[in-house]
Amino acid sequence: MPNLQFLSSNTHEVLEGLGEPSLELTLVHVGMEDCRPFHTSSDSREEYIIHFILDGAGFYSAHGSTWPLHSGQMFLIYPGEPIVYGSDRNDPWTYAWIGFKGIRAESILNQCGFSRSRLILPLADPSSVMDTIQDIMAHKGLNAAHTLYREAGMLRLFSMLAAFHEQQTENESVSSATSHDLLYAKLGSEYIQNMYMHSEIGIDDIARHAGISRSRLNRAFQNGFRMSAKQYLIDFRLHHAADLLTSTVLPIKEISDLCGYNDQLVFSKAFKKSFGSSPKLYRDTHG
Q1: Can you list the pairs that 124-128 forms with residues at least 24 positions away whose Cβ atoms lie under 8 Å?
Q2: Of 42, 237, 281, 283, which sees the most CB atoms within 10 A?
Q3: What is the pLDDT of residues 2-20, one digit of tens each?
Q4: Residue (of 148, 118, 182) closest to 22 by Cα position
Q5: Four-point Cα dihedral 223, 217, 93, 158, nearest 10
Q6: Interacting residues of 283 by C-beta distance below 8 A, sequence separation 6+
Q7: Which residues in the chain land under pLDDT 50?
Q8: 203-229 residue pLDDT tens
Q9: What is the CA radius of gyration of the chain?
């Protein structure tokens, strides 16, 4: 018999201890939480967990990588994997989650677009996800009717995710700009705007953040911004550098570092190529 518990406070609700005995697919727990700043978790899991970010921002670390995340995304935790995730200091996230296990789990996750190399995906309809999870939590009984209703809710949720993934896959062959291209370009550009100062970030990092391939990312940027993701990153860094040159008295070496260029010579060459003058001359002329 499952040890079902419903826990509720001002900041979170969770229905756990479900564990109905099904080898195929078992709902283990569901919940929602309005996190405090710097709220982190690193416990190893025995089940799969999908977190749906409804508001705010945070980070997720797994497989040696860390991704800044925000509302409109979801991330997957695999059983037994070392992970860390936590809320942002200034804009802590609110998320819902679902935990499950069973021999069908990984196959269903693949149908939804997840894999061990693709842990983060865009979230198509946060309000429907939240409604479904709240509906599941509203059925707290141990009787057969409530158990079946919770299982049906879990399958409805997976159906929504699979349908969105199938729609994305179909649109891979479309060459014109689509709403998905704009979404991916937006995710990529936001990542660049948050991470441009780190010299080590590259196109693969941006693509992983958006949950798509490198070539798909470049297509999205071409359709959304009429330039490649690499050129967008360069332009953003250099335009920020130009602003710092004219609005501050910071040394050029420090501005170079702040804009993601550890090598001042490389920075100066890139700046001159873009603006037609060296950083020093640009400051003297426009300052």
Answers
A1: 124/160, 124/161, 124/164, 125/160, 125/164, 126/52, 126/53, 126/54, 126/71, 126/72, 128/160
A2: 237
A3: 566 766 677 667 776 665 5
A4: 148
A5: 100
A6: 245, 246, 252
A7: 1, 175-176
A8: 999 999 998 999 999 989 998 888 999
A9: 22
HEC letters along the chain: CCCCEEEECCCEEEEECCCCCCCCCEEEEEEEEECCCCCEECCCCCCEEEEEEEECEEEEEECCEEEEEECCEEEEECCCCCEEEEECCCCECEEEEEEEECCCHHHHHHHCCCECCECEEECCCHHHHHHHHHHHHCCCCCCHHHHHHHHHHHHHHHHHHHHHHHHHHHHCCCCCCCHHHHHHHHHHHHHHHHHCCCCCCCHHHHHHHHCCCHHHHHHHHHHHHCCCHHHHHHHHHHHHHHHHHHHCCCCHHHHHHHCCCCCHHHHHHHHHHHHCCCHHHHHHHHC
CB 11 within 8 A of CB 33: yes
Would the CA dihedral through 224, 226, 230, 232 be positive or negative? negative
